[in-house]
Every structure is written in structure tokens, then in C-alpha cells.
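Lesson 9: reading folded outputs for more than one chain in a single document. The general rule is that every protein is listed as its sequence immediately followed by its C-alpha cells, and records are never interleaved. Here is the first one.
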Amino acid sequence: MERVLIVNADDFGLSKGQNYGIVEACKNGLVTSTTALVNGTAIDHAALLSRCLPELAVGMHFVLTLGSPLSAMPGLTREGKFGKWIWQMAEEDALPLDEIAGELDRQYHRFVELFGSEPTHIDSHHHVHMIPQIFPLVAEFAKSKGVAMRIDRGLAARYQLDDSGVRSSDGFASEFYGEAISDSLFLQTLDTSAGQGERSLEVMCHPAFVDNTIMGSAYCYPRLAELDVLTSPSLKYAVAERGYRLGTYRDV
């Protein structure tokens, strides 16, 4: 049975080093897809690079925890900036959902302005779209636009989120992350998915070259390790041997 494998690199637009790493992993490796932070400091650079790389599918990385919003969001920001307090607000059921819905729409339209097309799919920075109060907003928005959406099925089941009618991959793997990056870790995620009978799988990744912005990130040098693994010719062969065809969210 042929299976579709989507290797999606998050954080397109975060920095030039991130952008170049994603492009390298697409040109010479397994990355087929990426998702763009439209409020990232290097988003214009990302959009420029994407025009020269049509084989790289580009989706939208909805942002509510980094940088500045594109719309007025006094209920979520502090001193005009996003931050990780969003989870505490969610626990307190204090999220400004109208503001979040407006920002989602603004970021979507900014994506279209930058890239000249609609995104292939929607996911989010730090997985904020899987927060139970936010998930229905993003799911309905994706359905209304006719675009796919990343769904972590484990979280959806835990929070009893209704993902019916939302186009997505059968499986999603976030395990290719951390200090133990290797070929075997990547292949292990594929074998786990195949064992569950999933016909399509997204593997999340963050390949990058280290620059000043990445140096300031809590997740720095493993991005270089990811780039090395994802551009390994032997890994590409092993993926094909397992019956996977590289694809994008256009294939689901």
C-alpha cells in the first residue's frame, strides 16, 4: 500500500538561517512542505525564496505566541507583543476569542498578499490551534477557505475536539524533535504510523542554519542536526523502501 509522507518544516520566515535551512532540506532532502510565520522578521525573504522553489508547498503557521499581531489585540498581548501566557489564559477560560478570530483572518490575508496564493494548509506556532477553545475557530476557518489543517489526533481525542469535515493527513508526528535527532528516530515515526494503518502522515521538522535569531532560540543546534538528517541520501532511500511517496497537503 502506497502511503503519502508530508515532511513539513515549521517557522518559514523566522530568520534567514531558518529560511535557507528549509530551502536546502527541500532542494536536497525530504522536506516537501513548510509553514510561514507571516509576522516573522524574515517573512519577506521567505516569500522571495519560495518564488524560486515552486516544488516547496507553503502553508500558514498561525502565530499567537511570538512577535507582534497584525491587528489590535489588547486582550491577548502585553505591551503589544504575543507571549506564552496564552495557555494560562486558556486554563482560566479568559481567551479573547473574537480578537483571535480577527487575527486569524488578518494573518491569512497577509499570507495571500505575500505569497500570491492561498496556503496549502494551516497549522500554528507552538500548536496553539490545538487549544480547545481555539480549535473550533481555526477548523471552521479552514473549512470555509477549503484548505487543509494539521490535526494532532491524540490531542483532538483527549480534548474531544470535533475534527469532522476538516481535511487533514491521517497522522501527525511531532517526535522528530529534541536532542536525539537521528535517521532511526525519523524512521521510527514512519513505522509507528504504518503500524496504525495510516495512509498519509505529516512529520513536523525545523531544519535551519544557525544565525543570530536561531542562537537566541531555546531550540537551536538540534535544527542543524535535523538539517543533516533530512538531507541524508540513505534516509531518502529508506523512506521509499517503506512504501512512502513524498507529497504535500494537496494530496490529502
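And here is the second record, again sequence then C-alpha cells.
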Amino acid sequence: MPEAQETPISELSFRQAMAQLDQIVAQLESNTLELEDSLAAYERGVALLRELRGRLDGAQQKVDALMGELEQDATDDEIDTTLHKA
């Protein structure tokens, strides 16, 4: 396995991990790898995908939190009083 794929995933930048995942997908689609190498590449790809999704989820949570800070709480004057219980 190439040295780049031996680098711990947690040490890769998001861009490096994406590039490595793209490379693995291309290798798997080419059908040029031996079975053992294909399984190892697939396993690495799954681990990369799991890490990338986790990072994206974390980034989304940060964005949501920041957007929440920007929103102001509605004051009593701004609350829609046209809705009431029937």
C-alpha cells in the first residue's frame, strides 16, 4: 500500500482525505488491484468516508450554533398573537 495511505486518517487535512478517497475509488473502479489490495483499499476508503462525514457533521453543528447566535429572540411585541387555542 502506498505511503500516503499509511498516514493516520486523523492526521490528514479534509482536502487530503478527500483526495485519497477519490484515488481509492478510482483504483477500485479500475479493477486492476488484487483481491487483497482491493479489500485493504476498500477498508481504508470506508474509514476515510466515516472520518469525512464526522468532520462535516461537526462543521454543520458549528455553523448551526453560530447562526443561532445571530438570531434574536422574539420579543413579546414580535410574537404573533393571531394564533390562539380553539
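What the second record shows: The first helix runs from residue 3 to 6.
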